[in-house]
Amino acid sequence: MMTPIEHVPGENIDRDALRQWLIGEVSRNQAYHNHKETMAWTATAFYIPGIIAAGYSVPKISECCILAIVLFLFIVAGALIGVFVRFQFRNRWIAAGRVEGLTRIISGLQRGWNPPRRKNSWETGDFYPRFIENEIPEPGRLDARRRQVEWVSYTAIVLSTFVAIALLLCHSCHCC
How many other C-beta atoms are found inside a 10 Å radius of the C-beta of residue 121? Predict the structure, then answer.
């Protein structure tokens, strides 16, 4: 667990040290945010041609049992990549919320806001002291923005899985 600065509640707070630490945390969370978004879009970008190529290149399957197994594997692959991409986007939005809350505290410090001196405010919450975590929005509050960004990836994954299955079926039924 990380602690922002050494501080004994009730004493004077080194505002500059707190501000510098917050700036470092913003940078770290921005890098993490960018990494998670990159991972989600990269996974989507690699999955689409990969699953379509797999659907096209599978040799003609005449046995229904083998065809059912391959179809099941394609559906499982689509579900797994969807879960992976969702996880990456979820962590992206958590980092975005942290950046938003930390930035709000930094701007408050620059306007003359004083961090709380009470002991319970400096107790560690899930990740940061409580007075910092109170400024960080819950990931659920970002749902509308999330849907606007993520729907493209999920739609592409689902459509490419269906295209791959159609290619596989078409190729196996000798109709293409």
Answer: 14
The C-alpha atoms of residue 31 and residue 91 are separated, in whole angstroms, by 12
Q: What is the 3-state secondary structure (H, E, C) of the chain?
A: CCCCCCCCCCCCCCHHHHHHHHHHHHHHHHHHHHHHHHHHHHHHHHHHHHHHHHHHHCCCCCCHHHHHHHHHHHHHHHHHHHHHHHHHHHHHHHHHHHHHHHHHHHHHHHCCCCCCCCHHHHCECCCCEHHHHCCCCCHHHHHHHHHHHHHHHHHHHHHHHHHHHHHHHHHHCCCC
Q: Using CA atoms, how far apart are residues 75 and 165, in angstroms rounded to an integer?
A: 8
pLDDT in tens, 60-117: 666 777 777 888 888 899 899 989 998 998 888 888 889 988 999 999 888 888 777 7
> What is the C-alpha to C-alpha distance for residues 29 and 25, in angstroms, rounded to an integer?
6
Which sequence spans correspond to the domains of the chain? 33-172
Q: Indicate if the alpha-carbon torsion angle 27, 30, 36, 39 is positive or negative.
A: negative
- Report pTM: 0.74
Residue type, 113: W
Return the pLDDT at 23: 93
Q: How confident is the model at residue 11 (pLDDT cuts 50, 70, 90)?
A: low
